[in-house]
């Protein structure tokens, strides 16, 4: 009864103050909140207020924390025809004029700068771009995301598109420790930038050899208009850049959510925005229409090499050194199309090797000579690399595992949790083969004879196998920082350790053998010196068999104080769908006085 | 605690890298074909610290020297060729007869879709004239392209 009365009262009151009511409701409108970048509980910081601190972004002095006050200030300043504020906030103007039915007030026609910019900005299509992992830079290990605005359709290509990127801006004088610290607490400004997309293709696919995935979004014309108009509002607006959550990918997610505020994009809490998860979130919310694979220059070379016979490979190598090889009998004996392929390979190889560093006259001359050879031999079509599984289809980036096993005479149970992201025996679809990128991998173990204890904590564990062949001679490497256990004397001690190494690897079909030289520094309670150092070697084989992954690994370390440790292991990982895997492992580990054999069986669950 | 912080820092630095600066470290370096990537140390620094040490770019500031060319429609072929690394891609596409960079050139020069195939074929056939030597600059390449177009019945209408 009370409810009905309230309802009636509301109805009566509502019609009386219709104008104010619609205005007061507007501050809670999802699009208004999106336009002000209000955190609706998606990340830790700044909940219930705007992410933006920059006063230039608001028309009211408390606009960052009071959306209602900001709304009123906007209505007041955007309402008069020829208002200057409209030219700064065309998307807010669009919102208010639609909601409050402002008609015949001249719109934005007086905003010459905006109108010119707007005409120049492409907006026929919008795509989310995902340059894949780049292991050789710590800042790009998990990939990156940016937006692309296209001028036309497929026929026009995308080289003339624009790239919208969100990144931190760093003063040159600061060192990286301060940078990391400030990155965490929010000391660095982040800005949106708007640059030619061809520059991004050059940076990622050509210079850093990263494959790129281009996900076309299905935004309609009106939705694209929201996006582009709002981009203008973000020009020179300062955000805080936080590495874990409020990073490049999160800001793009916000931008896309603006186009469809009713979507569920920002509904779930996002603890750390890994770029590939942004792609998946968009996919799950139905934004992705199609995807395109843009192989790196290195992948293009690999695809060419695969088509050549051994003789042709030698010819291509020779040709890249000396164009005169094209006059030899062996080269002339090839069919014209084979000559084309060999010349293409030689050129691709020469350019890949000389993409960095100063230009030399000799390399430039050889490059042109090879292109002329390519030019006068008949073109061969369809030499593009095979398209791998899209990163959005890979296993979840977080993982928990339950393990049971025995070590020596004693049984144990173990729990594992990994914040991110992939190890080289996990299902490789959608990830880099031969790469491990782990952060915050925690294992706690309860053995029959012991209390619950920390077994292992990888703060960072990165391993990169870069296969070598006649043409490419990359170096493989690994870095591991964290805590682990090993036999010192008769007991397994917890050690705080840093280790790393460089090495070589090869790809023989699905099998990847590798060998590393390793170094390790550790702190443990059994050794006298605060830090013990060790050197050693590590070798093994990975086998990507399609239905499962298997690995053999052996490692030995010799310590400065004459201690030794070794491990040898065989592991089998059997994925069950994309979310689960069974992993079985046998490991022998030991030191000077004692060694034990461990059998274990795990169930691994990948999520998020 | 310190260890934890460092840990968080290390993970954090991995997200959302912006490996290169707007405008590009090689900005203004030149526009010859087959250039290398210059300014590598700067690039590395920008990569490692996950950001850019350059001025932000956004609006309609103009430049044609291989820096940020932000006037989106003003490529007109020549400006596009002046972007670092583009000339090399165009050269490769012309040698082969097709490719994305060559397509972009046709679009930026205003070649109608029905004539693009012919344009590409003509460029392919005149590769040696257009890329006359390894030191050729973007300006010279553009002049050579125009000359080739002028002596072609169909393409002459565009130049």
UniProtKB/TrEMBL annotation, chain A:
<protein>
    <submittedName>
        <fullName>Uncharacterized protein DUF4105</fullName>
    </submittedName>
</protein>
<feature type="domain" description="DUF7840">
    <location>
        <begin position="388"/>
        <end position="606"/>
    </location>
</feature>
<dbReference type="Pfam" id="PF25225">
    <property type="entry name" value="DUF7843"/>
</dbReference>
<dbReference type="Pfam" id="PF13387">
    <property type="entry name" value="Lnb_N"/>
</dbReference>
<dbReference type="InterPro" id="IPR057165">
    <property type="entry name" value="DUF7843"/>
</dbReference>
<feature type="domain" description="Lnb N-terminal periplasmic">
    <location>
        <begin position="114"/>
        <end position="284"/>
    </location>
</feature>
<feature type="signal peptide">
    <location>
        <begin position="1"/>
        <end position="18"/>
    </location>
</feature>
<dbReference type="Pfam" id="PF25222">
    <property type="entry name" value="DUF7840"/>
</dbReference>
<feature type="domain" description="DUF7843">
    <location>
        <begin position="25"/>
        <end position="99"/>
    </location>
</feature>
<dbReference type="InterPro" id="IPR057162">
    <property type="entry name" value="DUF7840"/>
</dbReference>
<dbReference type="InterPro" id="IPR025178">
    <property type="entry name" value="Lnb_N"/>
</dbReference>
<keyword id="KW-0732">Signal</keyword>
TrEMBL record, chain B:
<feature type="signal peptide">
    <location>
        <begin position="1"/>
        <end position="19"/>
    </location>
</feature>
<protein>
    <recommendedName>
        <fullName>DUF3015 family protein</fullName>
    </recommendedName>
</protein>
<keyword id="KW-0732">Signal</keyword>
<dbReference type="Pfam" id="PF11220">
    <property type="entry name" value="DUF3015"/>
</dbReference>
<dbReference type="InterPro" id="IPR021383">
    <property type="entry name" value="DUF3015"/>
</dbReference>
